[in-house]
Amino acid sequence: MLMRFLVVVTAAVAALALSGCASDTKQAAHSLGLTSGPLPSPQPFVVESRAAQTPVYPAVGVTPPPRSDRVLNQDQRKALEASLLATPGRQPSPSETAQSGKKKRKPVLTRQGQSFHLPK
């Protein structure tokens, strides 16, 4: 008798659990009084902590404004090339390396400021 009662109770609990997963949980929660209504408005510290300016990366799916198809004139092009060539830390182009005549050898081993090169 006790075994039959446990089987019936277990089946009833399992049926309730499975029916809860299959139904519309929002409607069921609202009908049971488990929800209290719409979300509250955010607290002032939350609003103040959000960035006032737009983020660096655009949102997904947002297309950027169209680019201008303006062509640079000769003076603007020369100024742009000069500023790019004057950029510190840039590597020389292959033509600049060929004009210099010799290639720099890379150090094989460095130790406390000393460079050791392999012989030619």
Spatial strand sequence of the major β-sheet: 1-2
Write the element-wise H/E pattern from the N-terminal end onward: HHHHHEE
Low-confidence stretches: none
- Work out the radius of gyration: 36 Å
What's the pLDDT, averaged over the residues? 75
Described by the principal axes of the CA atoms, the overall outline is elongated
The number of E-state strands comes to: 2
| Helical content class | 40-55%
Calculate the terminal CA-CA distance, rounded to whole Å. Answer: 98 Å
Question: What is the percentage of strand-forming residues?
Answer: 5-15%
Structural class: mainly alpha
Separate helix tally:
5
Major sheet characteristics: 2 strands, antiparallel
From the structure above, extract its key features:
120 residues, mainly alpha, two-stranded antiparallel sheet, 2 strands, 44% helix
What would you note in describing this structure?
The protein is mainly alpha-helical and 120 residues long. Helices cover 44% and strands 5% of the residues. The protein has a two-stranded antiparallel sheet.
Describe what is shown at a glance.
The chain is mainly alpha-helical and 120 residues long.
List the helices and strands and how they pair.
Layout: H1 2-22, H2 25-31, H3 44-49, H4 74-85, H5 94-100, E1 109-111, E2 114-116
Antiparallel strand pairs: 1-2
